[in-house]
């Protein structure tokens, strides 16, 4: 087992290493001189040279890369070209928003998606199943920004026009300033994200459950006279956990790397919004930092899932 | 696991048996000539009975016509897609006019005709969706077949590349790419293709690994067929179903991906109408709060398009692999009796198909040796990569970057 984890860890490191080369190389071959960007259009040649030297851009690529990667290991991703703040600080200041968004949404989508999947699987072919299937097909097809704008219009603007505020249009208040305000502000983004993801989890749970419920050990459990609920939840749902956690890990990983579109729609200043802003302003160190952080989250979540599976699957504990 | 094996062992003769199944439904007693149906005909017969797929297909045909005849629509309404009709399109206060007989779908914030722009936007969406998905499948087939057929270091290198593309945060990387090279339709296509082949590639690789051990491949080889000949004549025909299904299901993902990029202002460059771009303009300054038709119509078209392709993709999958349904049926019959089976049949097929993919993916992970020392049975349940293939597969790609 340790060997397996080590193997995954090595693989994770290689992925991150390749990713860093990818983004770093990308910006090296990119047109446009970053020194010009910082110094401004009217800067003289001397100033330009000075800035180039300060950034270390006069050194060969591999040297620049080595400097970058050594610093990165110490948590230093350089300094933003735009507002002279360390990239790490910029990203860290954005993390609470993204974590709030993803964390809350995960709870909601699991609470909607998994039970619906179980209901579908235990009543296949009935109207309950069909309804759940249709809803899930609908929300799987919904582009996130369309759903976000739709919910904003229905749940923020229409009530407001009729004289009362049901939900705020967006924005973020700190969890430390009160749970209610925090949850109230996050409600619409959560709902949007959760509806989209719940559709997927409904499908996944349903497919897994239908398959599991056909297994012999479920028949045995029923034959023992265990209550149907216990059969479904204790024996049935238990064995879908492997698949669900795998998907959950992958989803959380990629959402933490920036729920770019949802943050954009609701004006949340999270990591995704930072990425968009830095792309628009050509702020390369920030882009590199965000991409690497995104890769890091994904790889780490995958690793976590692998370790979790060892705990969930007795056959792996050897 | 076992299901995938069953499916694949029978896939060679499935072609002929499908025909017999189709023929059997032509009542032999009626004295009519019994003809064997080709796979295509048999699939079409099954698909034709699937109402949802037919409606979806109807919408897609409508959309294609809309895109093709966009200039005609511009002529009929008398509105050019890029022209700003400030007198008629905007009210005295500068707000866009709503849907009416002058502007059927209303006008946007610059006084342009929303309907005409949607029609032209359909061109972009369909073009990017279909072209990107087909190119993605092409790359997937090349990489999957090479990796699966030759194995060894070729497989190692190609599989690691696939893993890499699957692991990186693709919307972020797409943004980085666009920020470096600038937004354009060509860049947009490239980005969408680059991030859309990996899952299909992995599934195809797994199928090829199974196929290449089949008797008919051995037979071909013993007759002196070259690798190229075996790949083209024996392996590729057996991948047709997979390629068709995955290409269809890839189209909505590509469309959403493009729309997402355009929504962020990094896809199609503004004067060209695109649905994502139109929605983005509607979101700017929250203009859609007072002019909801700016979100409603492009949003509806986008949703209907992805929904239609998703439904058609699922329908095609079930129609191409009817055995999956019957297999599950047998399993359920043992449990619940025939009454339950009758209702369960159509929904059950898709579950089974999803399980097949999962099993195929598990095999793939096994073969690539990503779990060192794990027994096959354990591996099938444990390899997270394998599960995520099956899981990710059913997720439209654009979704991951909410």
UniProtKB/TrEMBL annotation, chain A:
UniProt keywords, alphabetically: Cell membrane, Membrane, Transmembrane, Transmembrane helix, Transport
Domain ABC transmembrane type-1: 95-309
TM segment ranges: 9-30, 99-122, 134-159, 179-201, 286-312
Membrane topology according to the record: Multi-pass membrane protein
Subcellular location: Cell membrane
InterPro entries in the cross-refs: BPD_transp_1_N, MetI-like, MetI-like_sf
GO biological process, one term: transmembrane transport
Principal place of residence: membrane
Superkingdom, natural source: Bacteria
Keyword Lipoprotein on entry: no
GO cellular component, one term: plasma membrane
Similarity comment: family membership: Belongs to the binding-protein-dependent transport system permease family.
Protein name as catalogued: ABC transporter permease
Organism for this UniProt entry: Bifidobacterium simiarum
Automatic annotation (TrEMBL), chain B:
InterPro entries found in the cross-reference section: BP-dependent_transpt_permease, MetI-like, MetI-like_sf, OppC_N
Primary localization class, coarse: membrane
Annotated signal sequence range: none
The keyword Repeat is assigned to this record: no
Any one of the GO BP annotations: transmembrane transport
Gene3D superfamilies to which the protein is assigned, alphabetical: MetI-like (1.10.3720.10)
UniProt subcellular location: Cell membrane
Alphabetically ordered keywords of this record: Cell membrane, Membrane, Transmembrane, Transmembrane helix, Transport
Stretches with biased composition (Polar residues): 1-19
Domain ABC transmembrane type-1: 122-313
PROSITE patterns attached to this UniProt entry: ABC_TM1
Pfam families, per database record: BPD_transp_1 (PF00528), OppC_N (PF12911)
Membrane-related topology note: Multi-pass membrane protein
Gene Ontology CC terms: plasma membrane
Region (Disordered): 1-36
Membrane-spanning intervals of the chain: 54-76, 124-150, 157-178, 184-204, 243-270, 290-316, 337-354
Family in the record: Belongs to the binding-protein-dependent transport system permease family.
UniProt name for this protein: ABC transporter permease
């Amino acid at each position: 087992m340790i060997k397996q984890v080590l193997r995954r860890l090595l693989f994770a490191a290689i992925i991150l290493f390749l990713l860093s080369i990818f983004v770093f190389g990308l910006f090296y071959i990119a047109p446009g001189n970053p020194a010009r960007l910082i110094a401004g259009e009217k800067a003289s040649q001397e100033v330009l040279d000075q800035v180039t030297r300060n950034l270390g851009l006069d050194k060969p690529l591999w040297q620049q890369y080595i400097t970058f990667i050594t610093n990165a290991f110490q948590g230093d991703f350089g300094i933003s070209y735009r507002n002279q703040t360390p990239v790490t600080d910029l990203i860290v200041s954005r993390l609470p928003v993204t974590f709030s968004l993803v964390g809350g949404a995960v709870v909601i989508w699991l609470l909607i998606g998994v039970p619906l999947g179980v209901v579908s699987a235990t009543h296949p072919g009935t109207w309950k199943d069909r309804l759940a299937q249709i809803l899930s097909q609908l929300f799987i097809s919904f582009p996130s920004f369309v759903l976000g704008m739709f919910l904003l219009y229905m749940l923020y603007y229409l009530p407001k026009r009729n004289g009362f505020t049901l939900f705020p249009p967006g924005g973020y208040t700190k969890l430390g300033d009160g749970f209610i305000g925090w949850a109230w502000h996050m409600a619409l983004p959560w709902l949007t994200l959760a509806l989209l993801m719940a559709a997927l989890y409904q499908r996944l749970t349903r497919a897994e459950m239908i398959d599991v419920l056909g297994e012999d050990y479920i028949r045995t459990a029923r034959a023992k006279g265990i209550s149907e609920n216990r059969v479904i939840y204790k024996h049935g749902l238990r064995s879908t956990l492997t698949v669900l956690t795998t998907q959950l890990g992958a989803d959380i990983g990629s959402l933490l790397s920036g729920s770019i579109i949802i943050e954009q729609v609701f004006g949340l200043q999270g990591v995704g919004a930072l990425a968009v802003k830095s792309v628009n302003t050509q702020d390369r160190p920030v882009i590199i930092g965000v991409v690497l952080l995104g890769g890091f989250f994904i790889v780490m979540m995958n690793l976590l899932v692998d370790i979790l599976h060892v705990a969930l699957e007795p056959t792996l504990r050897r | 696991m076992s299901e995938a094996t069953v499916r694949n062992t029978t896939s060679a003769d499935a072609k002929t048996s499908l025909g017999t199944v189709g023929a059997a439904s032509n009542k032999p007693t009626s004295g009519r000539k019994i003809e064997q149906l080709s796979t295509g005909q048999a699939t079409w017969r099954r698909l034709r009975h699937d109402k949802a797929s037919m409606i979806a297909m109807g919408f897609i045909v409508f959309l294609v016509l809309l895109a093709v005849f966009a200039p005609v629509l511009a002529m009929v309404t008398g509105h050019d897609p890029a022209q700003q009709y400030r007198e008629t399109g905007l009210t005295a206060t500068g707000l866009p006019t709503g849907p009416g007989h002058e502007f059927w779908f209303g006008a946007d914030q610059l006084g342009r005709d929303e309907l005409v722009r949607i029609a032209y936007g359909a061109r972009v969406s369909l073009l990017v969706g279909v072209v990107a998905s087909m190119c993605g499948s092409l790359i997937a087939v090349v990489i999957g077949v090479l990796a699966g057929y030759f194995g060894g270091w070729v497989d190692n290198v190609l599989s690691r590349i696939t893993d890499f593309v699957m692991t990186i945060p693709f919307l972020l990387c797409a943004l980085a790419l666009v920020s470096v090279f600038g937004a354009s339709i060509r860049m947009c296509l490239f980005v969408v293709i680059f991030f859309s082949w990996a899952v299909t590639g992995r599934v195809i690789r797994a199928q090829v690994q199974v196929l290449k051990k089949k008797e008919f491949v051995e037979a071909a080889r013993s007759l002196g067929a070259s690798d190229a000949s075996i790949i083209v004549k024996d392996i590729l025909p057996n991948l047709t179903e997979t390629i068709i299904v995955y290409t269809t299901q890839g189209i909505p993902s590509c469309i959403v991906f493009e729309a997402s990029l355009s929504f962020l202002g990094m896809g199609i460059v503004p004067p060209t109408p695109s649905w994502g771009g139109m929605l983005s303009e509607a979101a700017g300054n929250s203009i859609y709060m007072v002019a909801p038709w700016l979100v409603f119509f492009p949003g509806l078209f986008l949703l209907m398009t992805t929904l239609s392709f998703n439904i058609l993709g699922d329908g095609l999958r079930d129609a191409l692999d009817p055995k999956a349904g019957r297999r599950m049926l047998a399993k359920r019959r043992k449990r619940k009796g025939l009454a339950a089976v009758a209702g369960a049949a159509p929904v059950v097929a898709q579950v089974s198909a999803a399980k097949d993919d999962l099993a195929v993916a598990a095999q793939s992970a096994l073969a690539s040796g990503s779990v060192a020392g794990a027994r096959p049975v354990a591996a099938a349940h444990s390899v997270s990569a394998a599960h995520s293939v099956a899981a990710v597969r059913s997720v439209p790609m654009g979704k991951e970057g909410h």
